[in-house]
Amino acid sequence: MAGSRRGRQSPTLVELAEAAGCSTSLASIVMRGAPGASDATRKRVMEAAESIGYRPDERARSLRRSSSGLIGVAYHVAEPFHADLVEGLYGTEGDGFDLVLGAMVPGRDVEHTIEPLLRQRCEAIILIGSMLPVARLRRIREEVPLVLVARQVRAAGIDVVRTDDRGGQRLATEHLIGLGHRAIAYIDGGQHPGAAIRRRSFRDTMAAHGLSDQARVIPGGNTEEEGIRATRRILDEGEPPTAIAAFNDRAATGVLTMLVRAGLRVPEDVSVIGFDDARIARTAVTPLTTIRQDTTLMAHVARERAAGLARQRFVAGEQVLVPELTERESTAPARPDH
Amino acid sequence: MAGSRRGRQSPTLVELAEAAGCSTSLASIVMRGAPGASDATRKRVMEAAESIGYRPDERARSLRRSSSGLIGVAYHVAEPFHADLVEGLYGTEGDGFDLVLGAMVPGRDVEHTIEPLLRQRCEAIILIGSMLPVARLRRIREEVPLVLVARQVRAAGIDVVRTDDRGGQRLATEHLIGLGHRAIAYIDGGQHPGAAIRRRSFRDTMAAHGLSDQARVIPGGNTEEEGIRATRRILDEGEPPTAIAAFNDRAATGVLTMLVRAGLRVPEDVSVIGFDDARIARTAVTPLTTIRQDTTLMAHVARERAAGLARQRFVAGEQVLVPELTERESTAPARPDH
DNA sequence: GTTTAATACTAGAACGTTCTAGTACTGATT
DNA sequence: AATCAGTACTAGAACGTTCTAGTATTAAAC
């Protein structure tokens, strides 16, 4: 019971050294696995540590070392896509860095989130899917190396890891066109990262196929709710398109929801395509055809970049990953009568 | 550009004191808003801090103070319900504690997650929805006050904040019975927190209404995928029940998905009820009737408990919150012909 | 004009580590 | 027998704060 520890501090290196009958320096060497201790001593110290319940104080360690060995990660807790990326970040250990999470929640913006990370002297910060204006990103960049994930930004000094949104959206749009669809609606992602590029890519691809007049862009968002609203709006306005592309899988799921509610079948009546290949894509009412972003790889690269930037082995740049089409059941050839 | 800071350390209190022309003690007093400095000095120091870009080093602060002022939070990143709780935890500031997040991801279990929190000398740990056996919880409890959220455990010294799962599931089951349903399937949550209690509550409630022979419990889980699988199994086995209750909203969403895929209508053919009132409940194909757990309140209470336990103002106990039925569109009276 | 009380300020010792610069010992090399 | 190289170990100064115990300075009280 912790009751027995009430008020007691946890044992320090000094107490460990005492228990093991050696100097704190030696105990320290053993605890961090540095060279300079005999095997016998190592064993003795480790046993003493075990027996007194010694646990190194990370604050003191970090303070004393010249570098904190910390990479900060700022992400939106409620965003499943971010959660996937965070999971991926933990996959790659062994670069000598620990991760410190900074949660963005409503009312706690990027600056608020990053401040504690900087106060812990994180050596680099991975910022996931932030909509922050470039000027403010620049200000952060002045304090610490910054890796921006899943968003494009052309500003010197800011490292970027992202998917080729333009290529991805082209893939999606051409998939639909290839299936014979002509009247295609695109549900936009508003201000969200990547939205502007995907929107433009949709328009450009439609234009390239001479379908500009059939291309409709509907205001949307990145949530199921916004997908639902946008689709309702489409349906309210009369003859629905034969295909709908959405900014991301969450919005696409909202599209599916609304179509089912309206009694339309997917893909028989309307084809739907998403973006991300999020977890929910598989379990949607109709398994979603979508553009796959490899979150594991993105996370891997992001961490590598952050570590490299912190150690000044890299110069900031842009890593663009190639997305691919994942065909499931929500898209099908346009029916001839349309 | 951070390039200009290459290799430069961030300014320390000593440099701040120098810049402001006072002692470090005084600069410290100003920076932490402690009494003992004149208004003029405060202004001068603050301006100096601003001008040299001083930012207190949290590691040093925490190390020096007798208490770290940290509460650790261990949660599953990929679990939306946990994300809601984490959001809630940030809502209540002003207790003098900062939150440190510990992410549980596949391959990184509770112990791995908690270790870094302890190394930062968190004064209490909030553990969300862990399935850890009591013995191991006890071991953690020996090191630090522990608040267990969304799970019942009867072990001295472990603080618990949970919803009344038994009452909640009774509410759900009786809602269905009250609508005239008799053949009701329950999709179980397996080993997940609360699952055992909800399962038993379902059985007991059915029994109390003389419906034991109509009560079916199907192995399931806490994800959409498992909801789908369980429902497929139900449909494969012949005459479907007129109502399905699921362990949580994610599983219930899977149920909806599978029912739609099978061409059944909700609630006309089958009523479905979930648990949690997660975000996805509203945007499900058919808006889910569900049992609402107030995550904001739970988070609020959990934080309060953690802070109180850390400061030794509370003795560990159990806080049980009352859930309520949220009626949406996925439940309706049983059709007479059933 | 001395005491008292309060306010503004400071020196310097912590906090729990790491790390540099050293000492003491061993065994091999000349 | 003296030198060297290597291994095992240690003393003690950092790291950047907070906090205790103080010293001046001023204002009020008699």
UniProtKB/TrEMBL annotation, chains A, B:
Q: Could you list this entry's UniProt keywords, alphabetically sorted.
A: DNA-binding, Transcription, Transcription regulation
Q: Which GO terms describe its molecular function?
A: DNA-binding transcription factor activity; transcription cis-regulatory region binding
**Keyword ATP-binding, does the record have it?**
no
Q: Which InterPro entries match?
A: HTH_LacI, LacI/GalR-like_sensor, Lambda_DNA-bd_dom_sf, Peripla_BP_I
Which SUPFAM superfamilies does the UniProt entry name for this protein? lambda repressor-like DNA-binding domains, Periplasmic binding protein-like I
Indicate yes or no for the key word Transcription regulation: yes
Q: Where is the HTH lacI-type domain?
A: 11-65
What Pfam family does this protein match (any one)? Answer: Peripla_BP_3
Put simply, this protein is called LacI-type HTH domain
Organism (species):
Propionibacterium ruminifibrarum
Q: What is the lineage of its organism?
A: Bacteria, Bacillati, Actinomycetota, Actinomycetes, Propionibacteriales
